[in-house]
């Protein structure tokens, strides 16, 4: 457990809240280009380089924001919404996540 000190913290969640990210963002420092604020309140900060889920990592939100403070622009993303951008500094687009199926069938149509 660690903490951050920010002069300005835009998120409603505490900065040591765990969020989901990817190995590419955390280890290779790829930019976050896709953000999801899940209906259950969890944040996902993803590199959007692939549709493959890959290895998810838990990262504190402060560590993500420390690296890229332009994420402030999506700090008010409602529950159940996603946002994405083409590049760092680009305009965020937002959309409500499609409703999740009740069953756990994760079959991908080809
Ligand atoms: Zn941190």
UniProtKB/TrEMBL annotation:
It comes from the Bacteria. Residues 98-110 have a biased composition (Acidic residues). Residues 90-110 are annotated as: Disordered. This is DUF2185 domain-containing protein. It comes from Comamonas piscis. The lineage of its organism: Bacteria, Pseudomonadati, Pseudomonadota, Betaproteobacteria, Burkholderiales.
């Amino acid at each position: 457990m660690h903490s951050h000190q920010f002069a300005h913290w835009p998120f409603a969640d505490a900065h040591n809240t765990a969020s989901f990210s990817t190995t590419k963002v955390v280890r290779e420092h790829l930019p976050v280009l896709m953000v999801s604020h899940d209906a259950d309140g969890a944040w996902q900060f993803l590199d959007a380089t692939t549709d493959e889920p890959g290895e998810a990592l838990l990262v504190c939100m402060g560590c993500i924001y420390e690296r890229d403070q332009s994420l402030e622009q999506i700090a008010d993303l409602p529950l159940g919404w996603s946002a994405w951008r083409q590049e760092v500094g680009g305009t965020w687009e937002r959309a409500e996540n499609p409703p999740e199926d009740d069953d756990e069938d994760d079959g991908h149509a080809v």
